[in-house]
Design a protein that fits this description.
Elements lengths: L3 H4 L3 E12 L2 E12 L3 E5 L6 H9 L6 E6 L2 E2 L4 H9 L2 E4 L11 H13 L3 H14 L15 H13 L5 E5 L7 H18 L2 E5 L3 H7 L2 E6 L2 E7 H6 L3 H7 L12
Parallel strand pairs: 3-8, 3-9, 6-7, 7-8
Antiparallel strand pairs: 1-2, 1-4, 4-5, 9-10
Helix pairs in contact: 4-5, 6-7, 7-8
The chain binds adenosine-5'-diphosphate and magnesium ion.
Length: about 260
């Protein structure tokens, strides 16, 4: 695993002093966030603290009231619609609500971004879809419809769909929400495997400590709209910050933390 000083490159995502309010509700209050190339940053924080809002800013689906966001070194405030579209082609997302298209089989769900965004021929699409299904270990499911596969398998296909365009940056918003622990573990293993084999940069919103320990190089604790703690994973879970300790609760002072 690389450390920032070893990679030495510019961050893939850099948010500086980002503020965002909805009406009178201040959600982000000066959020600073950076993730460097090839690294996986987990974002933790209470429900409704603005984790999904932060991810939406990275994709340019929301604009900050103040502060700046750079993705791949480009300032989202000045790239323009065409520039933003080009940046988005380099990203993949796995959203909580990221349902598959119900009336399309798995093959077509996976082929969709290739047909729409890359205009590939069917002969070019087929091997890409097969490769993506192999990568998430759902080989042979192409003819099935979303209603015919399990929740865990749907998540895997969601991950495959996010990766099929070969993004450099992947955003996962609670990829394990609603999954039982065993399936969560296999999704985590998948996220880790994808990061290691494809070298992608990732932002993962997650709250289960064991998931974060598995997938993240570093963790950011979002509290009152700011990065209250941001540290390498082992250091993060060893932190004595009182607010972080209160959030994590007594059970997660686990001395078993290993830094891999
Ligand atoms: N488009 C929106 N309009 C108004 N309020 C929003 C919008 N998106 C999010 N919020 C509010 O912002 C807060 C943070 O939301 P969110 O980022 O989804 O929380 P979480 O940390 O659980 O992901 C919540 O109070 C939510 O209701
Ligand atoms: Mg959320």
């Amino acid at each position: 695993m690389r450390t920032p000083s070893e990679t030495g490159d510019e961050p893939v995502v850099r948010m500086r002093g980002v503020h965002k309010a909805f009406g009178s509700k201040q959600i982000l209050r000066g959020l600073d966030l950076e993730v460097r190339s090839g690294r996986t940053l987990a974002i933790m924080g209470g429900s409704g603290t603005g984790k999904s809002v932060a991810l939406r800013h990275v994709i340019g689906l929301m604009e900050p009231d103040a502060g700046s966001i750079e993705v791949f070194g480009q300032d989202l405030a000045t790239v323009g619609p065409a520039g933003l579209a080009r940046l988005r082609e380099r990203m993949g997302y796995v959203f909580q609500e990221g349902a598959l298209v119900g009336w399309m089989n798995i093959h077509d769900n996976l082929a969709l971004p290739l047909r729409e965004r890359e205009g590939l021929s069917e002969a070019e699409v087929r091997p890409r879809v097969e490769e993506a299904m192999e990568r998430v270990h759902v080989e042979g499911a192409g003819a099935k419809f979303p209603s015919e596969i399990s929740g865990g398998m749907k998540k895997r296909v969601g991950v495959a769909r996010a990766l099929i365009t070969r993004p450099e940056l992947v955003l996962y918003d609670e990829p394990n929400a609603g999954l039982d622990p065993e399936i969560s573990r296999s999704i985590n293993d998948l996220i880790r495997e994808v990061s290691d084999t494809l070298g992608v940069t990732a932002l993962v919103v997650e709250h289960r400590v064991e998931c974060i320990e598995r997938v993240a190089d570093e963790v950011l604790f979002l509290h009152e709209g700011r990065a209250h703690v941001h540290a390498p994973t082992a250091e993060f879970f060893a932190s004595q910050d009182p607010r972080l300790r209160a959030f994590l609760g007594p059970s997660s002072t686990a001395p078993s933390i290993t830094s891999s």
